[in-house]
Design a protein that fits this description.
Blueprint (H helix, E strand, L loop, with lengths): L8 E2 L7 E2 L12 H11 L1 H8 L13 H13 L8 H6 L1 H5 L3 H6 L7 H7 L4 H22 L1
Antiparallel strand pairs: 1-2
Helix pairs in contact: 2-8
């Protein structure tokens, strides 16, 4: 413990990314990268796809549904209380990293119109309740297996 690591930490959710300290490049939301790694290892992306149907059509499908959902949830985890910061966060490097590898590879930004997503897609509370219940069930199963 406390030994110096010469290798950057490699992430499971996007193998092209590595975490390494470089003091000149700092973001205040960098801790979300580790939350995203936990998200990947626990398989939450599969649960998002399973429980939240994507009814969007046409130009409204530029970003994967799971990326929009993560942007919404992770912004709350980071302490942003509402969608007023969505335009700035859409450009933030950390928030771009929490999206899918496909979005990152395209160089795309996340949605600056998160309010539309939240009011139209997440308004169906029974869907999000089922999703979160499944996530908690998965966590409880892991705790019992480790116990």
């Amino acid at each position: 413990m406390g030994e110096k690591q010469n290798q950057p930490f490699q992430l499971s959710f996007n193998a092209s990314l590595k975490i390494d300290f470089q003091g000149s490049r700092v973001t205040s939301d960098g801790g979300l990268i580790l939350v995203r790694e936990l998200d990947e290892r626990l398989g939450f992306g599969e649960l998002i796809t399973q429980h939240l149907g994507d009814s969007r059509r046409g130009k409204n499908t530029q970003l994967p549904f799971a990326d929009l959902f993560r942007q919404s949830v992770y912004s709350r985890i980071a302490g942003y209380e509402d969608v007023n910061d969505a335009e700035r966060l859409a450009q933030d490097p950390t928030f771009r990293l929490i999206g899918s590898e496909e979005t990152w590879d395209r160089g795309a930004t996340l949605s600056s119109r998160l309010q539309t997503f939240e009011t139209e897609m997440l308004a169906e509370g029974h869907l999000t309740r089922r999703l979160f219940a499944s996530m908690l069930g998965r966590l409880a199963g892991l705790a019992l297996a480790a116990g």
